[in-house]
Amino acid sequence: MNIEFKSLTLEDIISMRQYFRCCKWLLSDYSAAFKLMWQKHFAIQFAYVENCVVFREIYQGRTYFHFPMELNDGDAERAIDAVEDYCREKNIRIHFTCVPREKMDSMLDRYGMEMRITNHRRWRDYLYNASDFIDYPGKKFSGQRNHVNKFKKLFPQYKFRQLNGDDRAIIHDFLKKYEVRQLSKGTVIAKEELESVYDLLPYIDDLQLLVGAIEVDGEIIAVSMGEICGEQLIVHVEKALTGYDGVYPVMANEFARHFAHDVKYINREDDAGDAGLRKSKLQYNPVRLIEKYDIFPRRIIDRVAHFPVLASSRLTIKEITDVDALGLYRLEYDYERNKYWGYNWREHFNGEPTPDYFMQCMREDFKNREEMPMGIYLGRTFIGEVVLHNFGYRGDCEVGVRLLPDFEGQGYAREAVLAAMNYAFFELNVETVRAKCFKQNIRSKNMLISCGLRPCGEDETFFYFKKTAAM
After folding, report:
1. What gap in Å lies between CA 180 and CA 253, rounded to an integer?
2. Where are the alpha helices (DSSP H) in 303-398?
3. Which of 66, 200, 288, 299 lies in disulfide reach of 391, CB 3.0 to 4.6 Å?
């Protein structure tokens, strides 16, 4: 499936609003305002895949995919299938981020324990009962009630104002006063977070955001902004000026009283590892810290430490060393040998390569666990190469073979492929071996079929084959 990711715009976010509203995951990351706020910093892109929205972000040079947002149960599984195929085609290591707890069982079913999982404390969202913020009930909220009472005593004339897009200038002026404190933290995340709030201002009405402010003597001293997603009110912004004791508990209470009556929860997002913010969020007695899992699936090749030594009736298959650099060079340089190989180094290299160049490329491919290129030897003579490559995330790989011209037509290719597949099935525990050949290459087609690979499809260019250990 051809997937085309494109940069996220306001129009895109509005068009996918139903996905955000129907989202059952209690995560702030799957909300319209969050995507718009952080689009610039995370280079967020998206694509529609199998009736799902798939977000992709590039951060610090790495590519991350969010779990597909689906409207119908089961669509996400097909979307992940397509993302896996996309990553294999583009040679991208697949990495999922912000996977909700509700989807971890399905990820374990898909990948087993062949994945690295992280769940950073600093990115977990704080979830609260909405009724707690509306009423501040009982002993556990006595501190908040005391702060509210103190504020009301000091500033009895305060007002809560509901704002909208027409009030952008007022909010902007408030943020200019607030940013002195924010930027004094001296952290990158503090600067980025403030910039993201400024970026949100032009789209208050477009995103149907809920905005409120506390006003004292005609001056705005606190602002909150949020949106309703499913059964939660997500508070994206909560800012207040210093010098007004109790203003934060008052702001939180007033915002909930005006906007949270029809939801079950309030999500006040993460603490980003800020010690003061963490202490404050915990004092409001969250009912749950919402976990966000990062998942890095491993392929079978990722656990291969070194090349094997394989033996068949006539051949030895093993690592290619510098002794055979010239033989590899002959194999790579022969255009007739490679026009059906599927990769032409001439498209990526200017000038005349040396034998060392091909050896270095081969070693880099294995070092990066992109493929296992192994030499085919007749006695001590290098006669060709068999490669296990294109490893997938659910126990599959592809096999390819090529020989020097003097050794064609003698069954060596078939023997090497059988040995490589036997190793893949019974040493690497691969579930499925795949292969393909150009339609013009009838000899290759016949050889693959003779190895027990069965035809499984074709397109304009290739015949496709596959084999399992049971075939």
Report:
1. 25
2. 325-333, 335-338, 355-367
3. 299
Task: Write down the mean pLDDT value for the chain.
Answer: 92
Q: The tokens 């994206």 sit on which residue?
A: 236
Query: CA nearest 68: which of 119, 25, 7, 9?
Result: 25
Do residues 367 and 354 touch, judged by C-beta distance below 8 A?
Answer: no
- Judged against a pLDDT cut of 80, whether residue 357 lies above it is answered with yes
> Is the pLDDT reported for residue 311 higher than 80?
yes
Q: Which strand (E) or helix (H) includes residue 269?
A: none
pLDDT (0 to 100) of residue 104: 94
Q: Do 374 and 385 touch, CB atoms closer than 8 A?
A: yes
Q: Within 13 Å, how many C-alpha atoms sit on residue 341's CB side?
A: 22
Q: Which amino acid is at 207?
A: L
Whose structure tokens read 């059952």?
A: 24
Residue 118, class by beta-carbon neighbours within 10 Å (0-12 exposed, 13-18 middle, 19+ buried)? Answer: exposed
Matching residue, tokens 């909300």:
31
Span 387-404, average pLDDT: 93
Half-sphere exposure of 328 toward its Cβ, with a 13 Å CA cutoff? 24
Asked whether 235 and 255 are in contact (CB, 8 A), the reply is yes
User: In the chain, what is the greatest distance between 2 CA atoms, to the nearest angstrom?
Assistant: 96
Q: How far apart are CA 124 and CA 144, in angstroms?
A: 23
Ramachandran sector of residue 408 (left: φ over 0; alpha: ψ -120 to 50; beta: rest) = beta
